[in-house]
Design brief:
Oligomer: single chain
Helix content: 40-55%
Order of helices and strands: H
Strand content: under 5%
Length: 39
């Protein structure tokens, strides 16, 4: 489960309960990253 404990996510992996927040964080990060790179 250490794979999900990346520094820029900062979400502790406690089980399946944290997967939705991890998914939302990944989607938000991708959107922000695309906005930065598309400029």
């Amino acid at each position: 489960m250490n794979y999900y404990n990346r520094p820029f996510f900062k979400i502790p992996s406690k089980g399946l309960g944290d997967l939705p927040s991890l998914f939302l964080n990944k989607v938000c990060f991708k959107a922000i990253y695309q906005r930065i790179t598309l400029k």
